[in-house]
Amino acid sequence: MKKDLTESTISRQNILNNQYALEKVELNLALGGTTWKDERIFTKTQVSSLLSVDERTIDRYIEQNNDELSSNGYKVIKGKELKKLKENFGNDMNVATKTTILGVFSFRAVLNISMLITESEKAKIIRSKILDIAIDAVAQKAGGQTKYINQRDEGYLPASYQEYSYRKEFTDALKHYLDMSDRYKYGIYTNKIYEMIFLENASEYKKILNLAEKEKVRDTMYSEVLKAIASFEHGLAQEMKTKSEELGRKLSQSELDSIIKNAASNPYMKPSIDDARVKMASRDLCFRDALHNKLEGYIQSVPQSDFDKFLGETSKSLEERLSDPETLDVLKRLKDR
Questions:
Q1: Residue range of the domain that includes 44
Q2: What's the predicted TM-score (pTM) here?
Q3: Are 30 and 36 in contact (CB under 8 A)?
Q4: Are the CB atoms for 47 and 110 separated by under 8 Å?
Q5: Residue 113 has pLDDT above 60, yes or no
Q6: What are 270-304's pLDDT values in tens digits?
Q7: CA-to-CA distance for 216 and 170, rounded, in angstroms?
Q8: Which of 110, 138, 279, 336 is the most buried (most CB within 10 A)?
């Protein structure tokens, strides 16, 4: 997975979607621009001067990356809006009075094109500063480290408790309905579930996230991943019970393996499994700088809503969650259901 900002759309968008990092970047870089309708804007002439490239280079990058730049704030203005802009800032922005159409960059779009242009030494410097600030911003918001950033989601504790309940249901089913030594069955079939949902066993997962031997894998999982595991465990427990009673005996390993394989290909499970893979692969690369090679095809840019979820006002550490009466009420309702 390429992480060079000039080559990776996902890496660029992960930074541009992080409004907490962008606030710090804007403060630190002080690129200038003109305030128009509550945002900083820059003309093509200003951007070419800022990056020390000619305007034809800017035009070429706009043409080659129009969709990406437009989604991040580049736009063309004309008519009444342009007339008003020229009346207020025409001289300051060096916009000729006869101009009938004008391309303008938002601050975010300026960062975007700085991540794209390879001919500019100034753009390279900006990219380096952006990366440093973005990494520091995430670490600072996450309380110094990101290994347990998943626990800052307000949905984590309910999902974790729910998964714990279904985990008990599944281990009870293994105990009562699988003809296999208790010494091995729990670890083996936990790994089989992991491999079906996110294509990795526990050891592979720990290595990717650099977890210590005693650190628990599930403590680092996102709520959506825990929900997918819980659904899988619940379904398997019910299937094992039904099949065992039907046969009048405990299941063999091959029979349980067949049930697991069928469950993994069940179209009802596919949306939650795909969602778990996308969330794990995308968020871990963005927040933890951890690449799940087997899930590389599922990596997407992380939406702004995820930055709000893990770094925003509603995000809290696990310690804060456990002292929150509302969260404790939710857990109590789950326990009493």
A1: 9-141
A2: 0.86
A3: no
A4: yes
A5: yes
A6: 999 999 999 999 999 999 999 999 999 999 999 99
A7: 18
A8: 110
Evaluate whether residue 4 is within a structural domain. Answer: no
**H-type helices in the chain, by residue range?**
9-16, 19-29, 44-51, 55-64, 66-71, 79-89, 107-116, 121-141, 156-177, 182-198, 202-209, 223-247, 253-264, 270-287, 304-311, 318-322, 325-336
- Only one residue has tokens 């753009």, namely 123
Instruction: Say what angle helices 9-16 and 270-287 make with each other, to 10 degrees.
Output: 80
Stretch among 39-43, 97-101, 160-164, 315-319 having the lowest mean pLDDT = 315-319
Helix, strand, coil shares, percent, the chain, to 5 = 65, 5, 25
**Angstrom distances, CA of residue 200 to CA of 72, 255, 292:** 35, 22, 9
The residue type found at 264 is A
Q: Is-contact 97 90, C-beta < 8 A? A: yes
136 and 153 within one domain: no
Distance CA 194, CA 163 (A): 13
**How many other CB atoms sit within 10 Å of the CB of residue 104?**
24
Instruction: Give the total number of structural domains in the chain.
Output: 2
- What is the chain's Cα-based Rg? 26
Q: Is 104 helix (H, G, I), strand (E, B) or coil?
A: strand
Residues 6+ positions from 18 with CB-CB distance below 8 Å: 134, 137, 138, 304, 307, 311
Residue ending a domain, choose from 89, 110, 141: 141
Residue 40 tokens read as 């900083």
Q: Do both 136 and 209 map to the same domain?
A: no
Same domain, 69 and 186: no
**pLDDT tens, 156-188?**
988 998 899 999 999 999 999 999 998 899 999
DSSP element (H, E) containing 103: strand 101-106
> Does residue 155 sit in the same domain as residue 122?
no
